[in-house]
Design a protein that fits this description.
This protein has 414 residues and is an all-beta fold. The strands form 11 sheets. The chain has a 5-stranded mixed sheet with strand order 1-28-27-26-25, with no helix packed on it. Strands 4-37-36-35 form a 4-stranded antiparallel sheet, with no helix packed on it. It is built from no helices and 37 strands.
Length: 414
């Protein structure tokens, strides 16, 4: 495989090294993402987990109520809807690329265990599995053309006879097609006639390809009408020197599965990266290339002792969003007001052109330089014209000084 450090594509918006007026310029030419509109989702109450559809017209988030309750909200057409029904103690949501389905973990009461749920917007949530889950939502495809979506999640199921002398049950990744009612579960992590462990799934639009983490590597399982689900021998987290020599995680795929972004500690994936911390890479499965997710200020490829987390690639594969506490990616420091908060901030990269922008920041004013504010768990639309994320710090949106944690939505990038 060729390891690429030059742009693979020239189409789409080129952000960094931008001309004046196309973005806000901070210290040393640092490019700060300029969105015309910014909004708090949910108002004066704790919210988080913003997730946007591919076209940016629909956004889902988690909203916390009194007494420790929580619910999933979706807004589209100027109206906000509660889609989690009577469920409580919900995890962060994930909206499908077409904006028609939402996946999350939820419970029937504040003291109950969380289970995976899916909801076709406008209908009641459907329980998908029986294995207890956490905060990270299941993966979800677009509508399959029959009123259902395909969900992928971690669950326990009976092992088919395909495993010789296997145990009666196995826990790993399954898929389930569900709409207004639940469907049957199918295990997908078959490799050499055995099931392997799998976590952190990412699914394509058609629901026929799933990328996941297994034994600290990024693997891929694909569906065939002839053979069913089979894990490829291909290690997605590989470069020209072979599989990453460090742990890999956080896979995210484009709609068609051509591009896969992930974070890796490996030191053998790029000659300019010494490894040690999780950094962002993009695999082009068609061109068989691996590319760093960004080049920072002054040609920096380091991440300065911090990890890159929450990696998400846009539907067309052009942009990658992530969050990190690094001040080496862009020549900018965290605001003084950040001392009481976790110092992590959101970046978006036009990775083919090796250009990166800061998204969660305080603009400069009154002679003071711009500075980073807290931001985590980004979600981006296809053209990165919309971005959702969450922040603990006040002032990230004009007038937001109520002290609550907020899910945020920025849109109309200029």
């Amino acid at each position: 495989m060729q390891v690429s450090t030059s742009p693979q594509r020239t189409s789409g918006r080129i952000w960094a090294r931008a001309v004046a007026g196309s973005a806000l310029l901070g210290l040393a030419g640092v490019v700060l993402a300029a969105y015309t509109y910014s909004e708090v989702l949910g108002g004066s109450i704790d919210t988080d987990g913003a997730s946007v559809s591919a076209d940016g017209t629909r956004v889902a988030w988690r909203e916390f109520g009194s007494g420790g309750t929580s619910s999933i909200k979706v807004r589209y057409g100027g109206t906000t809807y509660t889609v989690s029904g009577s469920l409580d103690n919900v995890g962060r949501p994930r909206i499908s690329r077409d904006g028609l389905y939402v996946a999350f973990y939820g419970a029937t009461g504040s003291g109950s265990s969380r289970f995976p749920y899916g909801v076709k917007i406008g209908n009641s949530p459907v329980q998908l599995g029986v294995f207890h889950g956490g905060d990270t939502p299941p993966a979800v495809s677009d509508d399959l053309g029959n009123g259902t979506a395909r969900y992928c999640f971690y669950d326990t199921y009976n092992v088919p006879s395909r495993i010789p002398l296997g145990p009666p049950e196995y826990t790993s990744l399954v898929v389930e097609d569900a709409g207004t009612s639940s469907g049957s579960k199918t295990p997908i992590t078959w490799y050499s006639n055995h099931l392997i462990a799998g976590t952190e799934p990412a699914i394509t639009t058609d629901g026929e390809t799933v990328f996941f983490t297994s034994s600290d590597e990024i693997r891929v399982s694909e569906y065939s009408s002839l053979t069913g689900w089979t894990v490829s021998s291909d290690i997605v987290s590989s470069g020209s020197s072979g599989p990453s020599n460090g742990d890999s995680r956080d896979a995210s795929c484009s709609a068609d599965g051509r591009y896969v972004a992930f974070a890796s500690q490996g030191s053998n994936l790029d000659s300019g990266d010494a490894g040690g911390n999780f950094d962002v890479f993009v695999r082009d499965r068609t061109a068989a290339t691996l590319t760093r997710g960004y080049t920072g200020s002054g040609g920096s490829t380091g991440i300065g002792g911090w990890d890159a987390e929450g990696v998400e690639i846009s539907s067309d594969g052009s942009y990658v969003a992530f969050f990190s506490g690094s001040t080496d990616i862009l020549d900018l420091e965290f605001c003084d007001t950040m001392q009481e908060y976790i110092e992590e901030t959101v970046f978006v990269s036009d990775w083919a052109n090796q250009s990166v922008e800061a998204v969660s920041f305080m603009p400069d004013g009154e002679g003071d330089p711009a500075c980073f504010l807290n931001g985590t768990f980004p979600s981006i639309s296809q053209d990165a014209d919309h971005i959702g994320f969450q922040s603990d710090t006040p002032g990230i949106v004009s007038g937001d000084n109520d002290g609550y944690k907020h899910a945020l939505h920025k849109y109309d990038h200029t």
